[in-house]
Amino acid sequence: MTKKTLHAIQSPIEGNLTVPGDKSISHRSIIFGSLSKGRTVVSNFLDGEDCLRTIDAFRAMGVSIQKNGAHVIIDSKGVNGFVEPKQPIDLGNSGTTARLLLGVLAGLPFHVTLFGDDSLTNRPMDRVVRPLRQMGAKIDGRENGKYLPISIRGGALESISFIPPVKSAQVKSAVLLAGLFGDSNTTVIESTKTRDHTENMLQAFGGEINVDQTTITIPANQSLEGTTIDVPGDISSAAFFLVAAAIVPNSKLTINDVGLNHTRTGIIDVLKKMGASIEVKEERHIGGEIIGSITIESSKLNGIEIDGDLIPRMIDEIPIVALLATQANGKTVIRDAEELRYKESDRIQSVVDTLQGLGATIQATEDGMIIDGDTSLSGGVGNSYGDHRIGMMIAIASLITKEDTQLIDPECINISYPSFFSDLANIQQK
Ligand code: S3P
Which domains are assigned to the chain? Predict the structure, then answer.
């Protein structure tokens, strides 16, 4: 296992930054670009390992996808031009590829086997397997299809009305994608609105979808046309630097061209509620997404309660919010976040273990954590547990630790943010 020494420099964060393209939107640009007829041109695509898995999966079905850094060109004849993949498809660490791809494969007359790395092999797939079986897809896999490896044989599907048992954009998206191959309208009724990039992007490709608050209806058999997608900066990546600027004294940072879709901006609400000095400017709308800038300065912070509908709007930001809470005065309680146990690691356990190891006062609960602040962090050893968001959280923590920190397995950060350390270096005052 490799290690990286993170030196305790404690220099302020300053300047302007753009972060790489949004991971969720990048995955969907490949999926919809492949399902559509004609050419799709994607700019600011996230050149991270997860999104490359989605590209490889559609290439395996015969779609022409050329990638040059963050610029991607997809030439597709639409689903009728797809071919059955000859080999099992390796999904690496990517839960989004696994769940959304299953939704597409449910409607295709192919036999396909999917597998992933150790982390993905232990993440639940039954949440998508159940509704897709209900629609008529033939799926088998380890523990009756609960886990990868999974084999699927798709075909003509029956449309359903589905209430997801978990708050998950991946589950919603898998059923909506399968709905394109249904026999009438497919409806997903969410208990809480989750990120809506699938709904937005379908429309950008000329598709039809009806969204009535948390009820989403998609007609079957649509003809989608290739288009141009400009991927906004990923607010989930920006969140690490927003927190850095909030907690490192004398910092001021502006992040430009970042996605501000309201289903993703829970981190901004949390920072505001804690008393951060933050200004958000919504600047333009592209393909149903909002893009703008965020400016933040370090300030005194207070502990808060985080729960309910806010959780899906910041689910990937909870590791970095836990670090933020160690620097806020008083108690922060995070509830209703049991979904964290099913991410790239059990993020309740990995966040709590990591921050305790660095000297924070934090304890795990069944569905979240309780953090007492503010505490000064000592440094030491930080294990990423192979989870990119834990790795980046440790790197940001090291900006305020008294001693150096050894980050174990830093490579996992390439999953969502390959240029993380160089972007960080660019905003650290020399
Ligand atoms: C994602 C949805 C979320 C999120 C993941 C990306 C997506 O997962 O954690 O990083 O692109 O739809 P869940 O749907 O499992 O909550």
Answer: 3-21+232-426 (3.65.10.10), 23-230 (3.65.10.10)
